[in-house]
């Protein structure tokens, strides 16, 4: 059976119109699983929880599996209140990006996905989370194929494995908002400046080389992580799902290329060559091969 393609949550701050237009395109794209919701900053409220669920039902009607994603960094009671609301809804599966979400879903005896922001690094943790109700886990982006292979050997029965295969690498989260700081604004009075940067703000070194991307409280890589050439390898390792992280441009084109590779219409090498046109600062895959991520 061919590997499934998932579309991760939008990691940037997009307007309601942009989000709705994007998900109308997703409805007819060769994507099997769609993650919805805000995972970065609770101040980003282009859509309410009810509107996200509305879009989820529309995608579900189009034949997609829908998952609601949660914040990766919780700092306030208001954020915990929203988290409880998402975790207690019964419409869709939930992606837990923080252990608070794991705790809520586990106590309710309801299944959940463990996102890549949770440090799942060994067999003991994999087994522990499976007992807590995990039905799927996403490989932390900094881990290699060798580590994945070892974890797959002891993967509990019935647990799916997903790998982040395309997009700017999510590297870190902080209590400080670097986008607000860039504009000389305090975090609590940021004026929602993230709306001006639909793919984040690229940070360059003193030598002018693109290095990181600032996305509010999240730091990403400047280059795109690209594992389209490793789809066959993932299949051999028993990976169930490869994730594509949305960008404001060319996401549907990238989805089409991954679909062609998984259906063996195109080779992984040809797919890697074809994706080059969609990489403004080049592609990287170092983590997958146990090297520096920027390689």
Description:
The protein has 295 residues and is an alpha/beta fold. 32% of the residues lie in helices and 22% in strands. The chain contains ten helices and twelve strands. It has helices at residues 16-26, 49-61, 77-88, 99-107, 123-132, 145-153, 178-182, 231-236, 251-262, 268-275; strands at residues 4-7, 33-36, 65-69, 93-96, 112-114, 134-138, 160-173, 201-204, 210-215, 218-226, 241-244, 283-284. An eight-stranded parallel beta barrel has the order 1-2-3-4-5-6-7-11, surrounded by four helices. Helix 9 packs antiparallel against helix 10 (268-275). The longest helix has 13 residues, at 49-61. The two termini are 31 Å apart.
Give the beta-strand count.
12
Query: Mean pLDDT, as a whole number?
Result: 97
Low-confidence stretches: none
Could you spell the SSE succession in H and E letters? EHEHEHEHEHEHEHEEEHEHHE
What's the structural blueprint in terms of helices and strands?
Layout: E1 4-7, H1 16-26, E2 33-36, H2 49-61, E3 65-69, H3 77-88, E4 93-96, H4 99-107, E5 112-114, H5 123-132, E6 134-138, H6 145-153, E7 160-173, H7 178-182, E8 201-204, E9 210-215, E10 218-226, H8 231-236, E11 241-244, H9 251-262, H10 268-275, E12 283-284
Parallel strand pairs: 1-2, 1-11, 2-3, 3-4, 4-5, 5-6, 6-7, 7-11, 10-12
Antiparallel strand pairs: 7-10, 8-9, 9-10
